[in-house]
Amino acid sequence: MKRTFFIVSLVAVGMSLMAQYQLPRLDYSYSALEPYIDSTTMYIHYNNHHAAYTTNLNKALAEFPDLQKQPVTDLFAQLDKVPETIRTSVRNNGGGYYNHMLFWQMLTPPANSKMTAYVEEVLTANFGSVDRFKEAFGKAAATRFGSGWAWLIKDAGGKYRIISTPNQDNPLMSVVSVNGTPILALDVWEHAYYLKYQSKRADYVSNFWSVVNWKKVEELMKK
Ligand code: MN3
How many independent structural domains does the chain possess? Predict the structure, then answer.
């Protein structure tokens, strides 16, 4: 009995050492984004959805130690080089792992969500005004059919653009037509808002502006 337990423990430790990707720590509590994003949604989104993408990414890569060693963003950039048997899983679960990691960092409690002068300047220069930026981003989020993400990205030429992607695709992926560095992301999967907003995605999108971590946005703009 004891011996079996010991072996099982060793296998468990071995598996967790092999697993490269881990659910990142949240910098705030599940209830910190209330009333705009509710506590139950945050709990389920993080512990069920994000955790599942992370576990499944590790599973997909388990038999490919060379790929495990590469940053997942390198795999996104060359998805066609990822073995066909795991390509879809790396795209969906790798995307899910990475996109949510970014998303949590781009959110902050409402009291901290204050736009910085630098971000205001960049958005005004690129989109005419902050309101016009929000309108265009909101439209990308509202009109993404089915599940996906809205993004503010900085392309290779340094130009800021708003795009949306289906499923867990992101602007770093070779399969996505417009590439760039993610600056701001919004999850518009129903799992991100349905408990509180039901079918009113537009209300979720407009409330998102109350919990954006603009300091993080500035940091990403300056990278
Ligand atoms: Mn999600």
Answer: 2
